[in-house]
Write a structure and sequence with these properties.
Length: about 400
């Protein structure tokens, strides 16, 4: 970061050789030659105020990396859990937050040949995308379609990769099957709804807060408010033969309910544990309760009941287990689907970096329908909820996604 101190001085002999006579000379410090950018930092695990917008030195690319000027960043529930320190094996703080963004390539490092200056790209990275400029390995960057907005592009990695791989790689969804997804109005939930429509005759059930039902009308076969209704009983009555695929981001007792809803040959997939998030900071009681409530299922029971249980963690799959080959294949499929108008990310709202606490609170309160986006170039606004008109226009339409005013 650039120094805020006055210019440093050095003493040099005067031309007359009198060493007692000094001349003050301005000397630019090294820090003053470094360009600075803004980034959203997590200073320590905890509440909303642990996130700060700070200035850092502009990054330089390593071998095989590209430099991207960021136009939009995606916000996911994993970011909220990271802030609380609720992830397994959390990173050390402070760190720049964020796993996904989209922008324009400004430079490339040695050996990076996939992109050139001016290319519009989607970036997937383990931490560090909530900044004005980021560097990333080119194998984790993907060329954007010409018609895709930066906001849409920043919505793809965490939500659509997760939804696609659960539905097609794990569950092998086919025509005539049934699917249940929790948090139907979130980024993954809306992605699941669109991807299920690419398969003929899929019955899609979802749980979502009552105030989201109008906005999700036409995207699901049936919606249940799990806060006020017994969704287990209601879905059981709607599909007495059971559900073929249960996608669970809740965990805890909902794991047991999801398993009992499975039809023979059904698959339960756990991809999150949001039930442990009950307040602004991490609750060890909620964590213990969620763990304790999950029944321990013997493999013999799976064998006897012809059911399957699976888990999916996208970040671990790509960055810990090295399966970036799957990432490239699935992203290519998603981009092709976008070009064919089969999918189109739903943007709930956009926020300035300086509004990160409001944006994350909106997600914590389950108010969003679709993806929440951070825009490093957007100015801070006073109101906390500024996207009501856009969401209302979506609820009146049966199109695949709401109209947006996103910059292309």
């Amino acid at each position: 970061m650039a120094s805020e101190e006055s210019p440093s001085t050095v003493d040099i002999p005067a031309e007359n050789g009198n060493n007692d006579e000094k001349v003050e000379v301005e000397q630019a410090t090294e820090a003053e030659d470094v360009n600075e950018i803004r980034a959203v930092f997590l200073t320590a695990f905890g509440g909303l105020q642990r996130m700060k917008v700070q200035k850092i030195s502009e990054p330089t690319p390593l071998e095989g990396e590209v430099v991207v000027r960021v136009k939009a960043c995606g916000l996911s529930f994993v970011d909220l859990m990271l802030r609380q320190g609720a992830l397994e094996n959390p990173p050390k703080t402070p760190l720049v937050m964020g796993f996904e963004c989209a922008g324009v390539v400004e430079a490339t490092g040695t050996g990076a040949t996939k992109f050139q200056h001016g290319d519009r790209v989607i970036v997937f990275k383990r931490y560090g995308t909530w900044a004005e400029i980021v560097t990333a390995a080119e194998r984790f960057c993907f060329r954007m379609p010409a018609s895709m907005s930066f906001e849409e592009a920043a919505s793809l990695p965490m939500s659509y990769l997760t939804a696609y791989m659960m539905l097609f790689d794990i569950a092998s969804i086919k025509s005539g099957k049934s699917v249940l997804v929790h948090s139907a109005g979130g980024g993954v939930g809306t992605a699941v709804s669109q991807l299920c429509k690419t398969v003929e005759n899929v019955q899609l059930y979802g749980t979502a807060s009552a105030h989201k039902h109008d906005g999700l009308q036409g995207q699901f076969t049936h919606l249940v408010d799990r806060n006020t209704h017994d969704y287990h009983h209601e879905i059981k009555s709607l599909s007495p033969d059971g559900i073929d695929v249960v996608l669970d981001c809740l965990c805890g007792d909902d794991t047991n309910k999801g398993y009992t809803l499975l039809a023979p040959m059904g698959k339960y997939v756990l991809y999150g544990s949001s039930n442990i998030v009950t307040g602004e900071t991490r609750s060890f009681l909620s964590y213990a309760k969620s763990w304790w409530q999950v029944d321990k299922i013997n493999p013999i029971k799976l064998y006897e009941e012809n059911k399957s249980i699976a888990g999916f963690n996208l970040l671990n799959l790509v960055f810990e287990q090295g399966r970036h080959d799957l990432l490239s294949h699935v992203m290519a499929e998603l981009i092709q689907m976008y070009n064919q108008n089969k999918i189109k990310p739903i943007i709930d709202s956009t926020w300035a970096f300086e509004e990160i606490t409001d944006a994350m609170q909106r997600m914590h309160d389950h108010k969003n329908i679709g993806k929440i986006i951070l825009n490093p170039n957007q100015e801070r606004r006073r109101q906390s909820c500024h996207n009501d008109i856009r969401r209302d226009s979506y609820s009146q339409s049966s199109d695949i996604s709401p109209p947006t005013s996103s910059e292309k």
